[in-house]
Structures are given as C-alpha cells and as structure tokens.
Amino acid sequence: MCVRVGQPCKFTLIIIGPFTQRVLLTLEEKHLPYDMKLIDFANKPEWFLKLSPEGKVPLMKLDEKWIADSDVITQSLEEKYPDPPLGTPPEKASVGSKIFSTFISFLKSKDPNDGTEQALLSELTSFNDYIKENGPFVNGKEVSAVDLALGPKLYHLQIALGHYKKWSVPDSLPYVKSYMKCLLEFQTIFSMVSFIKTRAQPEDVIAGWRPKVMG
Ligand SMILES: N[C@@H](CCC(=O)N[C@@H](CS)C(=O)NCC(=O)O)C(=O)O
C-alpha cells in the first residue's frame, strides 16, 4: 500500500489522505494484514510513476497485481474478502458524495460571498437530514463502505476548515456533529479503533492542505 510522505524541513510528514485512509480502514475492518510503502511526493520514484502514471496514492498490490484508485481497491477487497461484508446498498452509495468537493471549494475560496460556504452547508444539511432518519451510520446500525469513505473526508474537513477558516459544523446540524464525534461510549466512525489507528495527525492534515489554501 503506498502512502504519501514529504520532508518540509527536518521532520518527515506522513500524510494519510482521505482516499488512503479509506483503504486502510477497509483493510483494518476486514482484519487483513498489510504493509505500507512511503512515497516522497516531492520526488516521486520511477517505479511508483510506472505503476501509477497519474502519480496518485493509494496504490495497492493485491495478488501480485498493482491497483490504483480507492473505489477500485475497496471493491476488489470486498470481492476477494467478503467477510465481514462492508458493502453499502447501491441506492445509498452516493449519500454525502458532494461534501468533499464543496469542502475543497470553500477551503480554497478567498471571497466570503462567493457561495462556497453555502454550497457546503447545503450538502451537510442534506446529510444531517439523512442521518437523522436513517443513522447512526449511512446504512443504519452497521458501518459500511460509504462511512469508511466519508469519515476520512469529514475528518480532513473538520481539521482543515477549523485551522484555515476558523470554521466548524454549526450547532444547527446536530446529526452531522454526532456522526463526527469521537467519544468512546458513542458508536461513531471517528471513535472506531480502526479510525483512530489509521487517521493522520492533525498537524499533518494542516500541512497537507496548505498548498491548496495558498495556491
Ligand atoms: N480517485 C482517487 C483519488 C486519489 C487522490 O486524489 N490522491 C491524492 C492524495 S489524497 C494524490 O495522490 N494526489 C497526487 C498529487 O498530489 O501529486 C482515489 O479514490 O484513489
């Protein structure tokens, strides 16, 4: 499994992006052993670019074959290792799917009146209403693939918007806030042992988003 690494000064950053964490969570929840190769994004190695021409992580070797893209990787893992099942019913597979792109637009925005905050709030409001009716997870009582994809994105949203915009999910969206709580007595994606084990450090999340904010 390939993971991004960078060396801004004398420290090494291991930036577990949301797509990579999604794959790590799937491996953890399926109790599959794995090891990680760290990729210096400032100096991507030849062997890596040969396998991933777009230079993107995650990239994973499964059955002697390298596969790219978290959608393809998690689907392949589900097919090869169906137990425990993590699939989300197709009609629920797109729940929350626009949250990440609206978060990035808001994060990059320099104009407070350009509607990007409103667009994010509108996606979060739909998610809030969905979880209120169907929660605590997207597919009800049990965690499934959509939560493993969405949880890491919400984690990055929380840290990056908190740091760069001093913004947090408003109290008017209590079901989104509960979904993102990390309290051990609470059954949430953020409090799962696998999530805590695979999440990036907040300072690395902040450093990882800096080029997008400054860009
Ligand atoms: N659709 C891909 C997206 C993967 C992706 O965008 N990865 C980012 C890191 S989170 C990346 O490797 N970007 C290349 C770069 O920044 O040079 C997936 O689901 O795996």
TrEMBL record:
Keywords: Detoxification, Oxidoreductase, Transferase
InterPro entries reported in the protein's UniProt record: DHAR1/2/3/4, Glutathione-S-Trfase_C_sf, Glutathione_S-Trfase, Glutathione_S-Trfase_N, Thioredoxin-like_sf
Catalytic reactions on record: RX + glutathione = an S-substituted glutathione + a halide anion + H(+); L-dehydroascorbate + 2 glutathione = glutathione disulfide + L-ascorbate
Domain of life the protein comes from: Eukaryota
All residue ranges annotated as the GST N-terminal domain in the record: 7-85
UniProt GO molecular function: glutathione dehydrogenase (ascorbate) activity; glutathione transferase activity
Gene Ontology biological-process entries: ascorbate glutathione cycle
Family: Belongs to the GST superfamily. DHAR family.
Protein name: GST N-terminal domain-containing protein
Species the sequence originates in: Tetracentron sinense (Spur-leaf)
Lineage of origin: Eukaryota, Viridiplantae, Streptophyta, Embryophyta, Tracheophyta
